[in-house]
């Protein structure tokens, strides 16, 4: 069935006669583009098949979120958001009110312990919760704060502090996310609709799960708003290799929506939990065991694991946030001679920025994190913050950028990422390291995998404002009027 989108406007060409176009879609592909200003508006009787009149709204390629934890984000939308709390005491007050109201176990999310003078301790929660289990997940998902009842529930009674980081925290989060398939899919269906409403046509899902089975089931049950590339973790790598999964392969019986992604390896921690592995010690941590952060995978093991996956046809996605972790990750890419990405790449030395380009390693970054972390970076990475989130320097060096959210760490909204990359500000604050701002054209390119051109997939978004001429607030609140995946409408308010 042929579908024609009438009277779409090309961003950045507001004053040009040929700015309006009609886009002909057939079999999920853009088959033709007619410049209305040059030929005159086509009457409906001259158009084959169905039509949608866009009324001069702007057309851009469908947007991708290249780093999400989708099931976690779907569930996080139902957790108690404590991010507005500025102190440990405020969160304790929230828990007290919850428990006094008899609401049962408390599951909170998005606390920012790095802003507090003391680390969380189970005793503060015990004072107000009694036998009610309390879990509070950090904003970066690399730590979790439990009371004594929750520690006992997780088989960790007697833990020294109740503040768990890295793998211990991941283990708890895996248990908390263990809902029934039916309940999880209901959450996912709602989340997929929300993603499509923001112009998203595809995601790279790094959920800590055997995602091929999860997404085959979801797509079979009608959750078809998104293209999905699924990540594979080291715990499942032998299983993936035995099945012959190779990066880029399309999974059968998914209408072409599901593809094999990369092998995800978490090499270090995060800034917010002070576990990102860095050359410099964190302030106030001199002499402590993890004063430089946490290296989750020794370099020799990293090389061995990467070589095994690459030999089996799987590209690599290495989580590295601290500057020292990024150096080691690049060293491993060089040693293995493999393809892939570094996920986050938040703090880099100037020498390593050039190495990204030399090695062909993609920088998969989350610009909204720069806005979330600006205060923490200035404090915890004092003296190095000018090398944090260096998007402009990466582009100038010839590095390919891919934008994502790391949802639920940040909202699954590509317009937030674009706005933060273009303006390096949020909430009226002065731009943070404005020398690292990038052009809106580059931000859109880092958020898309196709173009509005003949022969390209009909993954299309229609918006109300020109994204190349919009203010930071207009970008962050961009009205998305229509989203299409392969010419199929997944969201519309037209």
Low-pLDDT windows of residues: 40-45
Shape designation: globular
CATH architecture of the largest domain: Alpha-Beta Barrel
Q: How confident is the prediction overall: mean pLDDT?
A: 93
Helix content: 25-40%
What's the number of domains? 3
Q: Largest sheet at a glance?
A: 8 strands, parallel
Please state the structural category.
alpha/beta
- Give the count of helical stretches: 17
What is CATH's topology name of the largest domain? TIM Barrel
Strand content: 15-25%
Report the end-to-end length measured between terminal Cα atoms: 20 Å
Please identify the top-level CATH class of the largest domain: Alpha Beta
- State the total count of DSSP E strands: 21
Report the oligomer: single chain
CATH homologous superfamily placement of the largest domain: Metal-dependent hydrolases
What would you report as the Rg, rounded to the nearest angstrom? 23 Å
Strand arrangement within the widest β-sheet reads 6-12-13-14-15-16-17-18
Protein name: Amidohydrolase 3 domain-containing protein
Pfam families: Amidohydro_3
Organism: Alpinimonas psychrophila
InterPro entries: Amidohydro_3 (IPR013108), Metal-dep_hydrolase_composite (IPR011059), Metal_Hydrolase (IPR032466)
List keywords for this structure.
eight-stranded parallel β-sheet; 3 domains; Diaminopimelate Epimerase, Chain A, domain 1; single chain; five-stranded mixed β-sheet; alpha/beta; 494 residues; TIM Barrel; Urease, subunit C, domain 1; 17 helices; Metal-dep_hydrolase_composite
